[in-house]
Structure formats: C-alpha cells, structure tokens
C-alpha cells in the first residue's frame, strides 16, 4: 500500500513541485500569503481565496477529466454554466423555492450534457464539434433567459451556495471537496474508471469486449454537464446575480488546462480526478498570485503563458524519464562521495 | 467513386442549397456585391484556415491563430507608424517572427511530446500578452502603400468588388490545395495525421514535418494578420479574439476530421464561405437579438453538420446497394 | 560458415526495457543471397532485434555492421537509406491514405516539383500485380482487409530494400496462395543477392524457403545452423528449451455430433457483406471455418456477434428466439469473440495485462459490480499461468507484450467470462509452436467442457485437427459443409478452389 | 416605415449594452423608423461585415457602435460611395477623413473618469487616500480613457494615490475576485480608502468582497464607478456605494433626431453630439432613480 502511495507521489511530483513553486513565488510577492484568520465565522486568507476561487474550475475539471479520459473534450461547459446560473437566477426572482431552483438548474445541465452525449455517442460527431455547437448556442440560450441583463437576486438560500460557509469552510470549497470525494469514490468503487479508460484508449476494442460504449459516453457527457451546472450555480450565487454574458466565459479552456496539467492525456486513457483538481488549484494559485503581485494587468497573459510553459517543461521532463535520470545521477554522485 | 471525397461533395451541395435558400428569402443576396464581400470579409479567416487545415490534418490543433493575427496587426502598426518602417519590410519582419513562433511551438510539441492543444494555448496567451506589452491602444495605420493595396480591386458588374485581399485568399487556397495533394510535404502531413508511429516506421521525417506544419500555420496566421491589418488599417491588441474557433469550425464544416489524416483544403474554403453566408444571412435578417444570433448560428452549424452526415450516409448506402448487387 | 561475407552483422546486442532484458548479447549475421529465418518463442526478442536493426530502438550496447562497416542506425529513415526494407509485425501502414501513397510515401515520382500521381498509381498497380493483387490503388487502404494490407506492406518493403529485406511474420494472415506468391518473389530477390531476414512461426515455411536459421530464447542466442542440417524436432527443442510432441492428427471427429444444437442461426445475412447463411452449433462442437482471404469469414463472425447487424434472419438459443444486435447482447447470451485484428479491435494498449484480461468479464457484470483488484489479480494470474503468457508482471501495459502474447491475453479475456459459445477469428495468428499446440489442446479441452466453438483459420491442417464440422466460404457466401470423415485437407481445398478466380476480383 | 436604419451593435457583453439596444428599439419605434440591428458578438470583423451587408441591402442610414476606434476608413468609404449616411454611437473613431461619417453621438469617456476623480478629490477633502482601481478589459478604449480621465481628475490632489490597479474585465465576478486580492494585499483592506471601478458591475462585485472582508463599503472604503446601472443605485440606497457617473444608454434618440433633420432639410448636424456625463451620489434619491431605470432592459 505504502509503495503504491510513493509511486503515486513520484508521478505527481512535477505538479506538486509546480504548486509549491507558485505558492512560494506568491509568498515572495505578498508575504501575508499564508495567513489565515477567521472572519465572521468564515476562514479568510489568500490561501482560502485560491481554493474558493478555484472551486468552480475544480468542479468543471472533475467532469472534464471523465470526458477527456474517454478521448473527448467538452467546449460547452462555460455556456452550460451560464445557462444554469441564468435559470437559477430568473427562477429565484420569480419566487420558486431554492431546492426546486437548484434541481432545475442541475437538470438543465443534465439536459445539455445529454445533448452533447447523444451527438458524440449516437451520431458519432467529433466531440469538439458537437460541443462547439452548444458552446455557441448555449450562451445565447442563457442570454435569452436573462434577456441580456444581469439578473440580481437576494434569496439567502441560494446565495449560501456561493458565499456561505460551514464550520468555517466556504461553501464552494466544501461542495468541490464533496464532489471530488464522491467522484473518486464512484470511479474507484465501481468499474467505471476502468471502463472509461478502456473506451478512451480503444473504443473499437472496448465494444468488441462487450462494453456498452455509447451509453457510457452518454453518461460521461451528462455528468460533465451536471458538473458545469453546479459550477454555474456557485458562480451565480457568489455574485448574487446571473451574468449570462460573462459567466464561465473561456472557463472551458481553464478546465481543459487543469486536466492536462494534472497529467491526463488529451488522447484519452489513464486519468486521475484528484490530479486534475490539483491542476485546477495550480492554475488558480497562479491567477491569484498575478493579482497579488501588483504587476500591471498588461503582463497577466505573458505571466500565465510562461508559467504554463514551465509546468509543461517540468512535466515532459519527468515523463521523458528526466527525474529517474537525475535521481540516478544523484545516487551515483552520492555513492562516489561515500 | 472514392468515399473519402463524399463529405466534400456533401458540403458543397449544402453550401449551394444554403445560398439558394438565402437568395429565395432575400433576393438582394444574389449580387456580386455580396459575393465580393464574402471573399473580402473572410479573407483573413480563410488564409488562417488553410494553415489550420494542415495542422488539423496532421492530428494537431493551433489555438494561437487569433492572437497571432492580433500580434501581427499591432506589430505592423507599431513598426510602420512609430518607427517609420516601410510596410513591405514590416510585412517581412512580421512573417519572419510568426513563422519562427510557429516553428517553436512545433518543436516543443514534437520534441517534448506536449499536446498541441496546450502548447498553442500557451502560445495564444503569449502572443496576446505581447500585444498588450507593445501597446494597449489601437493604432491606425496611415500609409500610402496601404492605401494603394486597399485601392487594388476589380469592380465586378453590379457594384461588387474583387479585392486584393480576397484574391490573395484564393491564391493561398490554391497553393494550399496543391501543397496538400501534390507535394511530399502534403503527403507527410496526411501520414503523420493518419498514424504517427506508422509514419515514423515508414521513414516519414516526422520531426521536420511537425515543425514545418506549425511554422506554416504561424506563417499563414501572420499573413492573415497582414490581411486583417489591411482590412482595418489598424493594429489593435483585442482584435481577432476567438478567430481560432471560427477557423476550426470552418475546417471541420469543410469535412476535415479533427482526429487527423482525413480532409481537404478545398473543403475548408467551402466551410469559410458557409460561415460567411450564415453571417450575411443574419445581417440581412436584421431582427435577431444578440442571443438569437448566437442560437441561430448554433442551430445552423448543427444543421450543416447533420445534413452533411445524412448526405454522406445516404450516398454510402447507395453505392453499397449498387455495387452489392 | 564463412564462405560468404556478412551483409548485415550484429554483435553483442543488448537491449533492456525498464528492468527487463529483452535482448542479451545477441549475435546475428545475414549474408548476401540468403534467406535467414529468425525463430523463437513468443516474447523471445525477435521483433525487438528487428527494431534495433532498423533504428526504431537504440541498442544499449553492441555493434551493427553493414558490409563490415560499423554503423549507428539513427532512425528508420536512416535504415531505409542504408537499403534495409522492413515489414514490422503489426502492419504499420497509413489506413487513411491511398494504397499508392502507402507504397510510395517519401519516394513519390516527381514532375516539375510536384508529385506525379498518375505515374505513381501506375507503378503501384504494376508492383501489386506481381503479388496477384489487382486493387483500386487510388482508394483508401482502410478499405482492404488485414491480409491485403500485409501484402501492401510487403510490396513496399521489397521495393525499397536495396540490400536487406526484413519480414516480421509476414505470412501470419496470408493464405496458401499469397504465401506461394511471396515465396516466389523472395526466391527472386535471393537470386539477386539480397539478404532476407524472415520471422515466422510456421516451421514448414522455414524448411520450404530458408537457408539458415537463428534461434533466440529469452533474449539470448540459442543457436544458429543451416536449415538442411537441423531436424525439426531439434529446432523446436532449441526454441522451447524442451521437447514437444507435435500432435496434428485429429481426435475430435470421432466424437458423435451432438443431437441438440443450442445455437441456431437461420438465414442471417447482410447486403454487400455476406449472403444469408444457416448455422447450427451445439455444445461440445468445434466448427472450423475455411475460405480464402476476403471470403467473408470475418464478416460472418461479426454478424454472429452483433458487431454488424444482420439485415435478414433470426437467432434461436436453446430454442428461444434471441435478438443479437450489439456485442453486449451477444455477451449476455454467453457469446465471446476473439477478433482478427488484435491491434485495433483486441487489445486496450495502455491498460495492463490484468485489466485487459478482466475487461470482458467486467463488462458482463455491469458498471457497478466491480471486480476488486484482488479478484482481477487472481483471474489474471490464473490465465497467465494457464496460457503461459510471457510477461514480466501482470501490471505491464499490454502494448509492451510481444505479439503472440497479446493474442493470448485476448483469449484469456474471453475464457474469463466462461462463454457458452466462443468464436475465434485466427486465434493462432502469430503464436509460436509451443503455444500453438497448447491452444489446440485448449480448444479440445474447452469443448470437452461443453463449450461450443467456431474457429476461423487460414491453416487448413489446424482446422482438420480439431473440427467436428467444417464450413467452407467462398465469395462471401457459405458454400458447403463437411463433417466426419469428409474433413480432410484436400476436400477443404477442393471446395475452396472450386472457383479460384472469384476471390481476388 | 419611411426610414430604414441599419445598426451595427457590438454585442451584449454587459447590462448597459443590452439597455442601449433596447432603448434604441424604443426610440426607433417612437419615430416610426425601421431599425435593423446586427449583433457583432464583440468582433470588429463582424461589424464590418454587417456594414457591408447593410450597404448591399441599401438601407437609408447606418448606425455604428464601434467596438474599437480604428479601422473603419475603408468600409465607411464604401458607405459614402453608396451615399448612405453613417452615425457613430457611444464611441467615435479615429480617421483621417471626418467626412466619412455624419456625426457621432457619444459621451466623453475621459470626461467620465475625470468626473469620478474630481468627485473623489472633493469627497476626501485633502485627507490622505489610497485608491485601488478596477480596470476594464485590457486594451479596450473605455478602460484606457476612464483610467486617463480619473488620473486627470485627481492630478491636482496630491493626497490621493492609486496604489493598485488590475483588470476586472468589466465583469462582476472578476471584480469581486480582484477586489478580494486587493483586500488581502493591502492588509485586510485597512490601507484602502477608496475604490474606483471602470464600471458599475465590477463595483457591485467588489462591494460584496468588501463586505465579506468585514468592512463597510461606502464608509470604510468609498466606492465610485461609472455607468449608472440600476443595481448600483440599490447599493447606493443602502449606503454601500457613493457615486456613479452616468453613461446614458440613449444614444440612438439624438442620433435619430439628427438623421431626420438631415434627411428633411439637408442640414448637417454638428460633428459631435456629446451626451451628458451626469454624476449621481447618495444625495440623489437613488431609490427613485433605480425605479426609473429598472425597466430599460439593463
Ligand atoms: N517497448 C517495450 N517496453 C517494455 N517491454 C517490451 C517492449 N517491447 C518489447 N518488450 C518485451 O520484450 C520481450 C520481447 O518482445 P518481442 O516483441 O521482441 O518478442 P517476439 O520474439 O517478437 O515475440 P512474438 O513471436 O510474440 O512476436 C517481450 O517480453 C516484451 O514484453
Ligand atoms: N484479395 C482481395 N482483393 C480485394 N479485396 C479483398 C481481398 N481480400 C479481402 N478483400 C476485402 O476485405 C474485406 C474483408 O473480408 P473478410 O474479413 O470478411 O474476409 P475473411 O474471409 O475474414 O478473410 P480474412 O480475414 O482472411 O482476410 C472484404 O470485404 C473484401 O472487400
Ligand atoms: Mg514479434
Ligand atoms: Mg478474417
């Protein structure tokens, strides 16, 4: 068991090192980075911000991991977020109770996911195209719901999902953590993990082995849609309003980036949901660091590009056997010294 | 008939039907003006899409296209207006930089085995970020050479214009088609997209090809940037946001598979024109709100793809039936 | 043994994959004008040696000499430039490109700086005509069966080899006719002074055409001799490190044909792929299916297993009607299928041996009824032992196994589901003599246990050895059935050849 | 309708923009004008296509809300050739030839920033004040100009300093996120005396962040922003925001009037019709303004 853990740890090495490096740079940019205090019964600090702001992307990344592992991609998550947020806000304003609102918003995400899934699994459209359709039209649907304006609401029950806290922990973090544990448990305790990897690596062979790959794909995309809807609810609740124009804009790229930084290949196959979440945290830590650094915003994108390149270099260095090489070097040097 | 070209014919057929349907609703759409506009307005998109076709044929993707277009525009504006460089020299500098930029991405993709999606995403951030660093203002370019190029057009009967940039796009497409089907490089691109390992085992120079593909995409993005700057006579750091998705959509509507190895450059041209028709239709309609515009674009996109699949399916069935007897 | 100079020589080649020594100090020489067989069990290191020779892998140590000059083969392109043409074990071609492109990529005829397609296609037609293949060279390679693809790969390699031709199991999916053609060409090349390396598991072919043999065992050199001086028994024991009684004569046919046929397929057919056919099969029966390439055997299997849906006909199992339109439905009825194309339809390359073996059983048990890691390990261990799958451990990604061992993994996957009706499409393709005998024994054992088997094979002797009945196909239709004493090689051949020109049209 | 006008709108990236579109429709209806709106989804190339499309359709006039100041000369020259008058809304363009358009109905975005800055200078009245700034989208002209104007407005007050400035992309959620960062970086917000946001949406997001940090927006941290969308008036009425500078969504109304006058009498309007940049503070009965603005489609 412990050998397995160390193996997993070495595999996660580039990501963990990247995270540590970014956190350290953040600390240099802002010495109070690691301070955490209690504010109105809620944890408060930059580190908490990283997790809190990262929560929607973590949630997206969980769904996206499954999609990417099945050798697909879902470009529509940002638009689905906007739809679910818009629906939640307008329904709340029209006076529906919170549980119904949440269910409806999640249901909308499910429908979107099913639509994508049907196009991919049953109509055999390429995932990127299939989801591009909803990416374009979905935001339009969200705007149609809000009629282009920001729908503001004041329902404490819904707002709680964005800014509330439980035992001092902000709700978004809690929800993300919960979903993460749940998703990992489902993947580990059922055969889904293996089967998803299997269709991602070789769909034809999986079908020959008697696997219902179409249904599985449908479920994967539906799940991704629900995750996106959840993230959409959180974002809307956070700003107490649904901004159909901007909610989740370009977040699909962040989610994909998180998954890839987490080490899942865009060509499908082996995946780790936990590592994707770690990837999302790395990205958010970088974003927060840029905000804290005080650099003029003109440099944001360049900083982001450089960080991504550094992480990728570290990753490919290790996947090309760089660490083993270094370790070998190190060991033989150590041996020389003795 | 070779089944590989079916999507191409299907797309062409759809394009013609779509245009006919538009003309039926708005007779004014049947004019040389609209036809000329389709070429001029989509020139930069088309040029970038040729590069994207090669990238996608090789099984990759290039997300940096839009940013590189903006970068080129800003660079040209800065060079020409601030440093007084002659546009032709500025063009050469810009093309050199974007080509090297593309080649660099290709090298990272090949040698470090990082997915193209991520490398070009970083490239997208980098190019856009460099725009901001050069200037956040939009800079107008006022130069007689620009005016001369913009004044170059052939007036079609009926008031339409066949502009220089529209023609340039056509030329790029023709070169692209010839390269894809009648050059060794083209066959290598298809080979790498078909199966990289096999290509390697068959002795295809995969490294050179990959770097070449992204260099070419960089070059064409740069050229698209030049065209865009001619189109708007300005450099603006927020220009061409999301153009990469438009080009990808054009390539895919044109029947190229994102998995690589299958598709035609000519199909991309039709893809670009179809997108142009959608845009023109929406303008002619003029009643669509922002959100209905998005929804309609999505629905049309879906119908095109669905129709394409149905047509391919039907004709496959027909050829099956005849040769099966 | 030094009468002729070594054209291609390797000395002391070592190659390790993460903690596993695939080649250990191997010496090997091919001379000009000889056909040299490279033999060994599955996983012995034959393909690895080829890959080292042709620049796919870099050796850890050892030298490669061409014409006595030490060279460092950088990559496959370099190898080609050195005049080495190669067909690798898994057909490595580009299914998305035309047949002509596949034959000439990288060396297309040019005119005015452009590829001269017309000339290229003409040359492609000429080239393939030598192999009695008359294809539409402008259409996609993916349209053609594995066997055709293999011939194309061979034609390409032969055309490119200036000095050395390397063929890694080229005949695995070829039938007699194609093999004859290939051999004729090899003889011509030998006469022209080429050195030819030939890997195969068909020992008869070794004796038919090879001048010398080199034998590998567990990555080490086990012996090298002139074919004529090495009796078959000795050769086999060199390969396996033990002696093996090769049983070819039949035991099955003596069994009474079962009275009850549990699986009954009536009038199943699909336009363009296979004419409607009837098939009944009962527990304990082995039906052999023989036919030429493209005669529709694989299509039959696909329809039986629900991969392709039949346009006509119906299925009865135990007398009850059944609807089989998907593999899941077939699996639910207790069917299993080992596909012909193991690379694209069989293995899940990145998954481990353990996971590959558990996959079908897992799919059968459903998504939520997970086989635990321990159960999977037990299962995998059991079959690794039972089928003698050579792997360092069961966690190894299956793509790193040798070809024959991959085949066994897929067989294990289906045996794990304990099927009632198992279809094997070319099960012995690429499997060594030892394993071959084991698989035939296994087939016999399985039907003793009451399993119904349908075996598709291009090896007539093999079919004769284990079948209770034989179905013969020609031109995508079931043409006849043999049973009991009618099952002889010559009878089968006679039925196949009734209309010999039809198949390659 | 006696007049057909093609309007190339940028998109609907914000509530304000949606309001401008809906107000334009209302104003057109009032005057019996047939208004064709083409939505450019934030892209200049789409706007150019739309203008070309309008020319091909032969509309009577073209309105443009240009997404960026440069790059219009060629297409406007085509419109001129087709004798279609062009009116610019809410932003003017940079061109070598002013004849290419009839008039521009815009606010002065630099002026807006200046009004905000001057208000702040007056409000702190000589006390030391560290300001954090939430910029609009990097590179967009309102962001550049509102920054510039604000700096002009506080230029004479040496006690006011901008200590941090980051982009919030004109959105609520980014405004909130960036403000959270500012608060942390400036020791929990104790060092911040005022917030200047380039639009109200970012200010609304930032106000929430301030509250969550345990501070009182409007008191501990003064909040001043631009646009005057309804939600900021709610905040003002609760004392959580201090001032906003109005950018009226009614640009089309004056434009229609100018066009009518031009068509009827051939009288060319002035080249620039500037809309008012009105300052609203808590003293202006924000509740009432909110009710007025609510129905305009923000
Ligand atoms: N890339 C690799 N990584 C790890 N192990 C490998 C790799 N390639 C081959 N091997 C191992 O090396 C050994 C030799 O394999 P090789 O393919 O050379 O066998 P072979 O003699 O060709 O067998 P077959 O007759 O089944 O084709 C096998 O045990 C295989 O598992
Ligand atoms: N010699 C050939 N010439 C042309 N086409 C061929 C040839 N051999 C096979 N094909 C094509 O390959 C397809 C595959 O047929 P199928 O797989 O059913 O054959 P099979 O009997 O299983 O033969 P095998 O599996 O040995 O190739 C056929 O539909 C046929 O079109
Ligand atoms: Mg082998
Ligand atoms: Mg077959």
TrEMBL record, chain A:
Q: What is its membrane topology? A: Multi-pass membrane protein
Nucleotide-binding as UniProt keyword = no
Q: What sections of the protein cross the membrane?
A: 12-30, 50-68, 75-94, 100-121, 128-146, 158-187, 215-237, 249-267, 274-295, 301-326
Chief localization? membrane
Q: Which domain of life is it from?
A: Bacteria
Against CDD domains, the record matches this protein to: TM_PBP1_transp_AraH_like
Protein localization: Cell membrane
- What name does UniProt use for this protein? Simple sugar transport system permease protein
From TrEMBL, chain B:
Q: Name one GO molecular function term.
A: transmembrane transporter activity
Which NCBIfam families does UniProt cross-reference here? PRK11618.1 (NF008630)
Q: How does it sit in the membrane?
A: Multi-pass membrane protein
Keywords per UniProt = Cell membrane, Membrane, Sugar transport, Transmembrane, Transmembrane helix, Transport
Q: Which Pfam families match?
A: BPD_transp_2
Name where it mostly resides: membrane
Looking at the UniProt entry, the stretches that span the membrane are: 6-26, 38-57, 63-81, 88-111, 117-141, 162-182, 211-231, 296-316
Q: Where in the cell is it found?
A: Cell membrane
Q: Which InterPro entries match?
A: ABC_transp_permease
Gene Ontology CC entries for this record? plasma membrane
Which organism is this protein's natural source? Phyllobacterium myrsinacearum
| Keyword Heme on entry | no
- In its UniProt entry, what is this protein called? Simple sugar transport system permease protein
Automatic annotation (TrEMBL), chain C:
Q: Which UniProt keywords apply?
A: ATP-binding, Cell membrane, Membrane, Nucleotide-binding, Repeat, Sugar transport, Translocase, Transport
Q: What is its main location?
A: membrane
Which membrane topology describes this protein?
A: Peripheral membrane protein
Q: Which residues form the ABC transporter domain?
A: 8-243, 246-500
Q: Which GO CC annotations does the UniProt entry carry?
A: plasma membrane
Which CDD domains does this UniProt record tie to the protein? ABC_Carb_Monos_I (cd03216), ABC_Carb_Monos_II (cd03215)
Question: Into which family does the record put it?
Answer: Belongs to the ABC transporter superfamily.
Give the protein's recorded name: Simple sugar transport system ATP-binding protein
Gene source species: Phyllobacterium myrsinacearum
